[in-house]
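Before relying on records like the one below, remember that each one covers exactly one chain. Contacts with other chains, cofactors or solvent are not represented anywhere in the record.
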Amino acid sequence: MQANTTAEESQERIITMDKGSRFTAPADWKMKKFDNHLQMMIPEEEFSIYFIELANPVDIQKAVKKAWKSIQPVFNLAPLKEIFPIATDDWEKAYFAIYSDTNEPDIIMAMARIYAGYAYICLVQAKSATYASRSSELMLMYESWKPRGFTSAQLNQRSAKNWNECDVQEFEKFIAQGMREFQVPGLTIAIIHQDGKIPYKKAFGVKKWGEHDPVTLDTPFMIGSITKALTTFLMAKLIDAGKITWDTPLTHLLKDFSLADPALTQRLRIRDTVSASTGLPPRDISWILKFNNVKPEDRLAEMKSLSATTEFGKKFQYSNELVMTGGYAAACAYLSEGNLETAYAAAMQEFVFEPLQMKNTILKVEDALKRGAALPHAREFNGNLCAIPLELEGAVYSVAPAGAVWSTVEDLTHYLLAEMNNGILEERRVINENTLLERRKPGIRMSDTAYYGLGLVNYEVQGLNFVGHGGGTLGFSSHLFFIPEKGIGMVILSNAYAAHPFLQAIQQKFLELTFNAKVQAQTILESAIQERAEIVKKQQSTISLELKDFSERDKLLGEYYSDIVGNMKLIKSNDRYELEFDNWKTEVGSEEHAGKKNLVIVSPPWCGLFKLQFNTDQTQLNLDFFHEKYNFTRIK
């Protein structure tokens, strides 16, 4: 096994393997060469990736099993989850296998693809917390791994086609089929041209599953993290107004702001809060589990306990709390008196919504309902779709700059037009071009072809350069992008949790009809539907709701407390077990895996996602989700 390195050793290097395949690796990963594989690992040896080339793979799953045996002869784990992603470009087949659960201390997974008689297999073993902070580096290496002679689609060399009536009918037929089979109640979509034309926009479906009130182009949806792009638009506008710069220190605007590390506290600037590159990890569960009567000021106070898990400016880590901090800090530069919620709402109204003519874009759920908002939906334990309580979406309001905006497809076309025309909307300059474009510059690397800028992602799809952001809340999914070199963009809003695979299929259908891309949208949709069905089937086979399986859980009944999340109760009600938090409650099932017994949340939208382990003396329940760990101690 040979390995040659080139490129800048200080940052990245190119690894070349025996058969001529190559991949890009971060410079700080160590390399070990063996006769039949190559091992990459971080210096702490808490994250290892094995690269294996196997000739003549008859079956991709069998090839992965053979690869495991080649490095660990006693490996006998069965996958908890198997995924067959669409093979893009020249790849013939692709396969993911996940062998560990989110609450286990180790991540074990395999990723494989087939090309020209060889299987290219990555086997992954990592500590959960380390994986959470450095998974982007895994994706860099895996996505950049290409065999000799491999080719990728280059749609940038093709002109955009104007749709005819047959194209429109095919597109709408695909959306209608996907909504029916993927179970998405309502959806609005628009395609925008840089010249101001909107050649396609349409509303599909209903505001609430099972009812008849239709979605319209003016129906507000929660847009989730697309809010981040609007928050950095606000920052850029405040820079134009001379109130801040990208390099204004946070502590100049938020006098009481602090992190666990005083040096990092003083180092953070406005741009850092929206760059995903500070080393601060996500801590979303804390505000999902506890949000009733929690104010932005409370969230900022909680930041005092947050520590970095990677070096500043080196690794991609997505932190909603840090975006929240930057958004509120910027708002304080505009309105220093009063509370943070009022300052952010006022700043967004004056500097974003009004200049962009976003007349139906709001921050309050009550205002969205007055405008006929769509309602949130998620999947039940049995796999069926249902509306979820609107109150659950209140979790995001204390971190509003990161994801709380409600908007319409009509309003977001105005925003997209301003982006695509570098700050001009309807022949009026609404923002300085340089400050606008600063947000789009590729920043921290997310994968082989994706970089995070300032609240915007710069990424490549089949040779086309995209700029945009996705959004997801507990009951909504959204997607927004534009292709600067082609002067075309798209926005899609839906009222279903975790519908992004369907939205990606719509994007692919758009590329097929517009740029004659490889026909894959239908396969992407069918694979997503099959994968979700298999997840539901797996959960129902491993998680029990039967009372007989809870015999020892009766000893766990009682009240618990977490310093971060607050109160939690485990109660028995109407022949079922429930967890009650300050804001919501959920039914729980039981599960045993790898010798451990768990309580599993089974109510939507988190069916099977959150699992609590209990210690032997039943005095503590522990929730582990990658690097996020919450201990609930019994108080009654």
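Residues 1-9 have pLDDT under 50 and may be disordered.
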